Amino acid sequence: MSGLVAQGVSTVLVLFHDGELAAQARRQGIEPVVLSNRNRSLLATSRQLAQILNQHEIHIVHAHGYKAMVFCFVARLWHRFAMVKTEHGLPEPMAGGPIRTLRNQLYYFSDSAATRIAHAAVCYVTEDLRTYYQHAHASLRTIVIPNGVANMDRRQFPRPPEMREDWFNLLIVGRLETVKGHHLAIEAIAAESVPQDIHLHIVGIGPREAELQALAKARGIANRVHILGFRRNVYDYIAHCNILLMPSLHEGLPYTLLEAMALGIPIVASRVGGLAEVVQDERTGLLVPPQDAKALAQAIARLHDDPAFRSQLGDQARRLQQAMYSLEAMTERYLAIYWELAPSSG
Q1: What are the beta bridge partners of residue 301?
Q2: What is the pTM of this model?
Q3: Mean pLDDT per 10-residue run, the chain (346 residues)?
Q4: Closest Cα partner for 89 from 273, 291, 321?
Q5: 154-324 falls under which CATH superfamily?
């Protein structure tokens, strides 16, 4: 949105909830349209969405997420528009009871059907995702458009008090789910080969918090594992960590990775999905096999003992981000898709 606004493109941001994303938009001068939380009917909410799109004379809608795709598809009953969809990752199991699980499965099925019937143009943030969805989207216009971020300067972000300068600070940013691999990081820093001044900071919330705390206690490192919860000033933590860890079991192309690269932070990540596509092993970061706590511990210890190598990895990561994963490059690629779909009169 900020990239489009910077280019003078008329845009409307529609959200289902007035939460953190809405707050971030407002801080950038973008006032979102928030659909009523009281309106729980698919047809009624979709009709409300259609009215909003018609009022703003919207001809192209870019949907992010299966719920957005389904509601936009139904909204086309009242207001016609072309659709672009971005696949950010693989389908993941959602926490909750059987009713919620069934509802989410229905959404995923409906998402796939709506994408095909609407002839949406589908964008993937990685080649790995395009391969995964190649059969589901076989008849559609598809393209890989990597995520991008703006240039960032570490000096503008203050050091959080939790990240003491006499510690070697590791950071994981992400929801506390098994797929993010927090448990692997805890097992890694509990290894005897890992120096005792290493501390792990975890920024995020989720259903695995109690399990992670129990694991840290069981491994005798509860004093070196800090679960910080949600932090709005997450860039402060990224800018002042010694290493960003991403021990995920699978990933699309997380913005946290690109933000760390923009800030010149060395990265240790699992060799999966978009992480394996973006992180150049031994050049912009270190890649380790997924679910391998021993290899993760070895990579952490190696970077702990070699500050010159850490600095080299961070510098080269920043240059790669600026060259290939910039906000401007992402915006230009999406604009090209929008122009393809724009009405001829536009």
Answers
A1: none
A2: 0.91
A3: 87 92 91 78 91 94 92 95 94 66 80 94 96 93 96 95 97 95 97 96 96 97 97 96 97 95 98 96 97 97 97 97 95 95 66
A4: 273
A5: Glycogen Phosphorylase B; (3.40.50.2000)
